[in-house]
## 1
Amino acid sequence: QAKLAGKGRFQLFDPEHDRSMRSLHRELDRVEQGLDKSEFFLLYQPKVNMRSGELIGAEALLRWQHPELGLLLPGQYLPFIEGHSLMETLGDWVLREALAQAAKWHQAGLEIPVSVNISARQLHQLDLAGRIEELLKLYPELPSGRLELEVLETGALEDLALVTDLLNTCVRMGVSVSLDDFGTGYSSLTYLKRLPASTVKVDQSFVQDVLDAPEDFKILLGILGMARAFERQVIAEGVETIEHGKLLLRLGCEFGQGFGIAKPMPAESLPAWYQEWRPPPSWAELSPIPSN
Ligand code: C2E
Ligand code: MG
Ligand code: MG
Ligand code: MG
């Protein structure tokens, strides 16, 4: 009906819109119930030093075991939650859960920093820094540096001054910040300049095709150079194969994360994975090509 009306025609009542709003509300209700019923859980993906094999962190990635739809990835439900205060509730759950996990690992003698993805909505939440401080107090044995916030580069930051303040407060508490999906947004350089991020995560889109796309190779070189100039650490996402790792190491990027190293896994599997995992021998031999 709405489609037939054509472009530019004004309609007082759009049945399709009404239907989708109703189903959105249903879905938001489902998320709330899902939280109550523990349908959400986190997987952890290792971040490593590709040369030494050292585990440098683990990124918490949200999953939803939906009773009817099965296992859902964040891309399937976060976009519609992002516009709703429920995102703050869910984000808070993720922070709590990830910190509890870091504390468990700490107890077991595994000192692994956890990285938590923070959505743009959460970054505009006024009490976020206070909330993080509260959560860290629950685990006084855990150094605050054990928490890293991954800030989405594409998450349009409406109020950059406010977000900068918020992140500065977090950094003063000892929490670290990284710029996620770096290079994909329109404000990469502004964010690099303004936000107190110690690490830049090169978006996987530039890494995946780098072996056969000269443009992506140039972008990767540019990002690495920029990160060096700003004295930020760089980690590459999307290290899918040994060849990707080789090229990155050649370019002087030692830190990596990707299916070629490990897929996201349950927290319980991570210690055993780390016991077993060794970088491919060809990685250890590579020395970086001196830049200029
Ligand atoms: P991200 O933060 O950039 O996370 C990396 C995504 O790439 C993850 O997808 C991961 O499973 C996937 N990945 C890792 N290595 C490889 C690889 O080698 N190849 C390919 N093709 N993919 C790889 P996932 O778990 O579906 O998450 C997608 C995005 O959803 C995340 O991107 C992040 O922006 C968001 N997200 C995930 N968990 C949370 C959360 O707890 N809170 C918020 N706000 N966002 C989250
Ligand atoms: Mg991330
Ligand atoms: Mg990313
Ligand atoms: Mg991403």
## 2
Amino acid sequence: MPEAKAAIVTGAASGIGRAVAVHYAARNIRTVIGTFPGDPHDPEETLRQVKDAGGQAVVHEVDVRSTDSVEAFAQRAVDEYGRLDYAVANAGILRNAPLGELSDERWHDMLDVDLTGVLRTLRAGAARMGEGGAMVAVSSIAGGVYGWEEHAHYAAAKAGVLGLVRSVAVELGPRQIRANAVIPGLIETPQSLDPVNSLGPEGLRRAGNDIPWGRVGHPEEVAEVIGFLTSPAANYVTGQAIVVDGGLTVK
Ligand code: NAD
């Protein structure tokens, strides 16, 4: 039996990140669950679901705004499991800001998490991976293919993620390490359920009616694609971005 692989997932105390940890658990991939201390999400619930799925994981506090914190997070996989195979740069924030109120500070705060946070995660991950390693960054239709009023900073960060991933993929190809992105559409998570910065429950329900698939997405449906992109099934796929949106952006 080959040794079980190991992954780091940022922002895994909720939403898409939690679903990725559970997806990995069911495939015998050991995970370091990244949890952000400032948020109300419950990493123990992720851990419980991982164990229910028969998996192995540890919870580790990480703030993707800090290089030291992210380096320690990636190192935890090596210390705990003796290896790091997969890195999922999932942590992100969403903030609403009309252009006239989009101060330099708000812009930098957003990019620090949603773009530089991805760089820090991929960099720390790649430094500890060998041949067969794979990384996925979570972008958004707002950065990939879709304009969203009052979210210019979010969209810019998420667009930046796509360029970052393409270049990293080219650079790491000779080491047989892959880097890809997912571009989720509207997915029901704490982020999209926030009525201030996003659509809220009622807005999501209404938006779902306009999506060809007839509803918004589940976090597990994004996790499946992330799992595919890190798996050996995607061995020759690198530098790509897959839209997971129920047809929203091709309508
Ligand atoms: P979520 O709010 O449940 O997850 C985001 C996670 O990031 C949270 O657990 C939060 O604690 C963590 N986080 C925030 N700031 C952090 C920091 N500085 N350091 C470390 N962790 C931090 O929402 P989600 O929808 O699951 O979001 C996951 C990713 O998917 C995000 O990058 C988000 O932008 C992206 N996304 C979501 C949607 C959607 O409709 N939900 C659509 C497109 C893209």
